[in-house]
Amino acid sequence: xxxxxxxxxxxxxxxxxxxxxxxxxxxxFVPVLYMVFTSLKPEGSIMGNLFDRVLPxxxxxxxxxxxxxxxxxxxxxxxxxxxxxxxxxxxTMASLAAFALSRIDFSYKxxxxxxxxxxxxxxxxATIVSxxxxxxxxxxxxxxxxxxxxxxxxxxxxxxxKQFFDGMPNELxxxxxxxxxxxxxxxxxxxxxxxxxxxxxxxIFSFLGSWNDxxxxxxxxxxxxxxxxxxxxxxxxxxYNQDETLPMTINAYASIPIIIVFIIxxxxxxxxxxxxxIKG
Length: 280
Known about the structure:
The protein has 280 residues and is mainly alpha-helical. Helices cover 75% and strands 0% of the residues. Helix 4 (72-103) crosses helix 11 (196-212).
């Protein structure tokens, strides 16, 4: 009797969790559907309620319009350049720093780690003025360097990767040293391959952060040729008198790479964060 009651409670709890998960999925997915269906409606359509949006007629004329009237492909290329270079370089630097903090003994190592950790506690907005002044003194404003260099410092990535490196067996390092491997080869041939899930998840989050970044590109870029999509979208919307279909269209287009990246690499997000939480 007790086992039956226990299994019944477990079944009810599971059903409740499924209902909650389904409800949250609807809450998060409805705005996406709203955006997509609105982007496919003819410009000037009267849409009084949700059903007016999900029912025909549909058209791709809005997408053709944004490509004909704005340098969307140029903005997309700029966003891709920044969103690919920043994760690769920042994670390379973060992994080297994490390896040094995890496996190399040097003076004031704990102080260095706590200084890096303290960087996570300072919001980016608090340093935006000083960052602008440094970029201005280096004469890199309104350039790709201004878009890329500030994103290379990633204290969170250093902490997560170090935590993962700390959990790797010392026997691997000792065996590699006996075989004559240098510290660089140990990092490159042993630690990097074993850390692929963590690197994949961090790279995805870094890509999304770079792709969606608005404040710093808005302050540091003046030339339209260097606009990224988050800067180009409001610039485009301020240049034309449109109803809601065109803003939804260009935002739907800007969401496509994010959705593709998430669909392809979603398993690494869960696996990487799980491993980084277990190790150490």
